[in-house]
Amino acid sequence: AQPSAPSPVAAPMRPLTWGQLNFLQTTDTHGWHAGHLQEPQYSADWGDYISFANRMREKADKEGRDLLLIDTGDRIEGNGLYDASNPKGQYTYDIFGQQDIDIICTGNHELYQADAAAREYTNTVPNFPGKYIASNLDYINPKTGEQIPMAQRYRKFTTKNQGIRVVAFGFLFDFSGNANNTVVQPVEKTIQEQWFQDAIREDTDMFIVIGHVTLHGPEYKALYKAIRGRNWDTPIQFFGGHSHIRDVAKYDANAYGLQAGRYMETIGWASLDGIRIKGKQLEKTSESASLSFTRRYIDNNLLGYYYHTGLDESSFPTEHGTNVSASIRDARKTLGLDHNYGCAPKDFWLNRAPFPSNDSLFTWLQDSVLPELVHLPERKGVPRIALTNTGAMRFDIFKGAFTRDTTYIVSPFISKFVYIKDVPYVSASQLLRLINNGGPVFEAAGLQKSQLTSPEHIAIKSDIIPEPEVYNPGPQSPLGGLSTPDLVPGYTTKDELGDDGDDTVHSPLTFYRVPNCIESRIEFPEKTPEKVDLVFIDFITPWVLAALTFTGEKYTKGDVLPYLKDGFTELLAEWIKQNWGQDC
Ligand SMILES: Nc1ccn([C@@H]2O[C@H](COP(=O)(O)O)[C@@H](O)[C@H]2O)c(=O)n1
């Protein structure tokens, strides 16, 4: 762990079940490879995860089992370790590349910016030779303009210890917000391609489909149907991502899916038993059984790693893992990520508090931050409505130091304020309601509501306000000898297989859904103005233009002008410096 990481707190634990074939999954790590430095339960870093994977591989080898590592994309954007360098990711590609991942694919974040997509092609793909799969993604060679596969379309291999024959795919959901140096082919179209049709006819013991794709979305439904249509009982193991939740899916008795949350909070664990390996007799115990699947969502901290490996502080770390932790420490130091801009007077929550409320980060943004930031000297005195999507904000602010790192954790995107001058107030005043309600006007333009909020909203469709629960430890083995522990707040996942998936027993957290966008009305006169400047984050331009059309206005992209030179992230840092003192 990083030197400033808080020590994890002992909690009641549930053990891992090992099978023939076992998996560790990461997804949506978004640059959090230093771990969480303000939350003890997620405080292990990428170096610790390397040690953990290594120790688990040793155990698998000793017992003749197999272990595969999976990563399903969105490795970048969301943490100073990636975002604070110039060029971005100067340190993270090498750090991430140290993990021995068996099957890896791309997320949408690797593709928003052309430079990030280029680095994916020149750095990450070669860091994982033969392991990186791009089943529905092409890259456009900047020198020749030629459209080429980002990486190989699928992978055939046999596992190390049991020789299980695997055919593996790596998909991205039907994403359309990519820069123009990549081409994402819709999954349904890819399924029709000859190479895919040939691949699903391969003689194999199992299929593994990894993807930056939600487990219950249309893309995996189509892939499941296509593979199962040709292979009536071959095991299919899916790994998902994108919606940032801990999740599982049972497609049928021989097909399951796992998704390992977000931000290096969770390491996903899946185990399979009952795979029929061609030419090998099954063990007596599983001869007649169909596939059996288990899952765990492992909290990313050292106490948990010790517990699952049966090792301790001195026997757990590997030299490789320790070296990677040291590289992360050095990179953080070089980037000045601990530099304190100001001290947050209290916690501000994205989803743990309702909007609007005193504890809501969006209320703070709307009432305190935007009115001060959205100010252009030459338009002084012009009343304005400032809009931002809520998905632009990615993480809570905790009471205490708001550092250079926090700035990127909260606001990682290269988003700038733009504006349309002198918009009739009658139209401008309707935009928030229109964008928040969504509906046909946006759908007709190919715009989805879910693209404006944080990805958690894809899966969480109503507020979660837990009842106070009575703790029942059941058969779990307590860690640290606690008998009636004060549970640490955290994930209390309820998935398709039940409520016992989390490796750590937590007390539950609330989740309040928030609107797609918020607005601030700035320098408004007492009397309703006739015209206002409509200022907004550039990311939401298509929604603003579609909504204006609906109100009867005829604005085009050409009417959208730059408003402030600095990006929102820099402006936010400046606001913190001006408004919050150094007394934490
Ligand atoms: N420039 C951007 C890019 C993305 N967003 C928000 O992020 C959401 C996607 O997040 P994932 O981690 O799932 O890929 C997207 O829906 C937007 O809300 C943004 O605000 N600005």
From TrEMBL:
Residues 347-545 form the Putative 5'-nucleotidase C-terminal domain. It comes from the Eukaryota. SUPFAM superfamilies: 5'-nucleotidase (syn. UDP-sugar hydrolase), C-terminal domain, Metallo-dependent phosphatases. GO terms for cellular component: cytosol; extracellular region. CDD domains: MPP_YHR202W_N. GO terms for molecular function: hydrolase activity. Keywords: Signal. GO terms for biological process: nucleotide catabolic process. This is Metallo-dependent phosphatase-1. It comes from Coleophoma cylindrospora.
